[in-house]
Amino acid sequence: QVQLVESGGGLVQAGGSLRLSCAASGLTSGSYRMGWFRQGPGKERDFVAAISRRGGSTYYADSVKGRFTISRDNAKNTVYLQMNGLKPEDTAVYYCAASALGGLLNPRDSDYWGQGTQVTVAS
């Protein structure tokens, strides 16, 4: 049974930082592209960042480029999202996702989802 468990969300002031983690179980380490999406109140789930199976390639939404960094540790079967320079518009529930076939720039590409972690950025 595949499980993705996110952690690290919380309340932070604008300009602050948070580091999200997603621990995967039931997946062969390094066999899935991993990514992060977010969904604000009343909004659709949007792509944030993705990383290739071995971590050699990363992809970002324009809105987070230069502020967020995605990484992964296949030895720990964990993916991270370092978020710096947070803005109130980054407020959302952040979801970890995994895709066996790649892609993962669109929610439809995901095979598995975590339960989400809330990030709130106060102005």
Main features:
mainly beta, four-stranded antiparallel beta sheet, 123 residues
Walkthrough of the structure:
The strands form 2 sheets. Strands 2, 4, 5, 6, 9, 10 and 11 form a 7-stranded mixed sheet that branches. A 4-stranded antiparallel sheet has the order 1-3-8-7, with no helix packed on it. Helix content is 0%, strand content 50%. The protein is mostly beta strands and 123 residues long. The chain has strands spanning 3-7, 10-13, 18-25, 33-39, 45-51, 58-60, 68-73, 78-83, 92-99, 112-113, 117-122. The relative contact order is 0.31.
What integer is the average pLDDT?
Answer: 95
Strand content: over 45%
Estimated helix fraction: under 10%
Structural class: mainly beta
Concise summary:
The chain has 123 residues and is an all-beta fold. The chain has strands spanning 3-7, 10-13, 18-25, 33-39, 45-51, 58-60, 68-73, 78-83, 92-99, 112-113, 117-122.
Note the topology.
Layout: E1 3-7, E2 10-13, E3 18-25, E4 33-39, E5 45-51, E6 58-60, E7 68-73, E8 78-83, E9 92-99, E10 112-113, E11 117-122
Parallel strand pairs: 2-11
Antiparallel strand pairs: 1-3, 3-8, 4-5, 4-9, 5-6, 7-8, 9-10, 9-11
